[in-house]
Every structure is written in C-alpha cells, then in structure tokens.
Amino acid sequence: NGFLPSTGKLLQFIEPHGPGIRVDSGFAKGDEVTHFYDPLLAKLIVYAENRESAIHKMQNALKDFIVHGVVTNIDYMQAVLSHEDFANGKVTTRWIEKEFNEWKPA
Predict the structure, then answer these.
(1) Which residues contact 57 (CB under 8 A, 6 or more apart)?
(2) How far apart are CA 99 and CA 30, in angstroms?
(3) Which pLDDT tens digit goes with each residue over 54-95?
(4) Is 33 exposed, middle or buried (0-12, 13-18, 19+ CB in 10 A)?
(5) Coil, strand, or helix at residue 74?
(6) pLDDT surpasses 80 at 37
(7) What angle do CA 82, 86, 50 make, to 5 degrees?
(8) What share of the chain is helix, strand, coil (3-state, %, to 5)?
(9) How far apart (Å, rounded) are the C-alpha atoms in residues 32 and 41?
(10) Which of 57, 96, 67 is nearest to 79 (CA)?
(11) Which pLDDT does position 2 carry in this prediction?
(12) How far apart are alpha carbons 55 and 39 in whole angstroms?
C-alpha cells in the first residue's frame, strides 16, 4: 500500500541513542497509533564529520530502531542509504522515483 499510514498498537518502540543521534517522537511502547494523528511516528536525525560517516551512522541507527505493531519505512530508508548513487551523492529530485518506483520490502 505504498506509504499509507499504518495503525495499531506499538508492541515495541525502541529508539536508537548515541552521540550524533537525535530522535523526535511522541510515541512509546504500548501507545495506539490511530488514523486521527499524523502518521509520522518519529523523526531520526544524525550528524557526523562527513557524508560517509553520517550515512553509516544513520544505517546503524535504523538497525537499532525497533518498531513492532505498525508498518514503518525503516527497510525502505535502509535501501536508499545503501544505494551506491546515494552514497556518492549522485541523486536528483527524480532519483527516488526512478530507482525505487517498484521497491517492495524484503
């Protein structure tokens, strides 16, 4: 269903932590995600010395971000971050549409 909002109870909600990692969220384990709220569960922000380090830090933070009970885009974000074009900064405003138009979670 693309990126349509997912509703349900958060059976697990474990945010990543560490230097250069910030999570803005308003949810916790046990909370109910309903269609009455913004479907954005959390915003994950990382910073590092350079692009390569920031990408690596984001990949690790996404691995440590555990959400069970609703569908997320964590796998999608991992796929984008792992793509060679993204790593090399060879992306355009149409790159996602071109490279990930048929993307399906594993």
Answers:
(1) 20, 21, 46, 47, 48
(2) 36
(3) 999 999 999 999 999 999 999 999 999 999 999 999 999 999
(4) buried
(5) helix
(6) no
(7) 95
(8) 30, 20, 50
(9) 11
(10) 96
(11) 66
(12) 24
Query: Which tokens belong to 66?
Result: 């555990």
Least confident stretch, 17-21, 32-36, 78-82 = 32-36
In sequence order, the 6+-apart residues with CB closer than 8 A to the CB of 15 are 23, 25, 42, 65
For residue 105, pLDDT beyond 70: no
Look-up: residue for tokens 């690596």? 56
pLDDT score of 11 more than 70: yes
Q: How many residues does the chain have?
A: 106
Domains and CATH numbers, the chain: 8-100 (3.30.470.20)
Q: Which regions of 34-97 does DSSP assign to beta strands (E)?
A: 42-46, 66-68
Q: Which residue has the tokens 């009970």?
A: 69
Residue type, 56: H
